[in-house]
Design goal:
Layout: E1 2-7, H1 10-21, E2 27-29, E3 37-41, H2 47-58, E4 66-67, H3 88-92, H4 96-111, H5 140-143, H6 160-181, H7 183-205, H8 213-229, E5 236-237, H9 239-254, H10 262-288
Antiparallel strand pairs: 1-3, 2-3, 4-5
């Protein structure tokens, strides 16, 4: 472990801590001295990268999605990328599950011609049948073993803007989550959000829906509530992002954007918020023990 800098102000130290954490540099912000807050880097192999990031931070390069938290305790961080989706190197910076989801969504969009040939991807829809009014029961396909239908509607997209919007948010929010918590945690959360939101949408409007937006709203809800309930988590989503996504949610509810799977959005958001709240409390009680 090596000290690379002393940052005079607490706010700047917190910002640099978030800057390092979002890029996967494990570090420690030490107790303040008369000169300021010392920054320690755990891994010798990351010293040069951390020093380059310090130079970038001093130049005021913005952080578009996450904002730093106040320093309350040392915050060891895991990897997060903040890069755009379309460059080869940046694609490789996605977590393995997130990258697989992006490739699957893109490939299925090509096969289905962005929804113009749904007959080729029918096996990925939640069901072929509309639910009977007043009957709460999973469709026959799922009941007879086609369990994948609970989740695979997330890979179906019905327009260029639809898939671009979802993959960009998968890159920012999903990439941050997988690189912070690991692929198993990420995959579990994706399956829970997808299963709940897809099932809710099916019972509200039938099986004609698809897209990653329910999962994206789940990620939004997770980071929003986790950051509020656990300040020491070290990652707080920018309020402007939350406002923008909620405004978009309301606009979709009005019908101005045409037919939209609004129940998927709402159920995904609620599931992510619940997960964020429970995980923050679990962390709190773990610290108390």
């Amino acid at each position: 472990m090596r000290k690379i800098a002393i940052i005079p102000e607490a706010k700047e130290a917190a910002g640099f801590s978030a800057w390092l954490g979002q890029r996967g540099i494990e570090h420690h912000i030490g107790e303040p001295t008369s000169e300021g807050y010392p920054v320690w880097i755990y891994n010798e192999a990351e010293i040069e990268t951390a020093q380059n990031l310090l130079d970038q931070f001093k130049q005021g390069i913005p952080q578009p999605v996450f904002i730093p938290q106040k320093i309350k305790r040392p915050l060891p961080q895991r990897k997060k990328h903040t890069l755009f989706l379309w460059k080869r190197k940046q694609l490789l910076d996605l977590g393995p599950i997130g990258l697989t989801m992006a490739i699957a969504s893109f490939g299925i969009a090509l096969v289905s011609q962005l929804g113009h040939r749904v007959d080729l991807v029918e096996f990925l829809f939640y069901s072929r049948y509309v639910p009977q009014s007043g009957v709460i029961s999973l469709p026959p396909e799922i009941m007879t073993g086609q369990i994948w239908r609970l989740f695979t509607p997330i890979f179906l997209h019905f327009g260029l803007l639809h898939i671009v919007f979802n993959l960009l948010w998968l890159k920012d929010l999903g990439g941050a989550l997988e690189n912070r918590h690991g692929s198993i945690y990420f995959l579990t959360l994706v399956l829970v959000i997808a299963g709940i939101s897809n099932t809710a949408q099916y019972f509200v409007s039938g099986p004609a829906f698809g897209g990653l937006s329910g999962v994206v709203y789940g990620f939004l809800g997770f980071f929003w509530i986790r950051g509020k309930c656990d300040p020491a988590y070290g990652m707080k989503i920018n309020p402007s992002i939350v406002i923008m996504m909620l405004v978009w949610f309301v606009i979709c509810l009005t019908g101005l954007m045409g037919p939209v799977a609004n129940t998927v959005h709402g159920a995904g958001l609620a599931t992510g918020m619940a997960w964020g709240y429970v995980s923050s409390k679990a962390t709190f009680f773990k610290k108390k023990r």
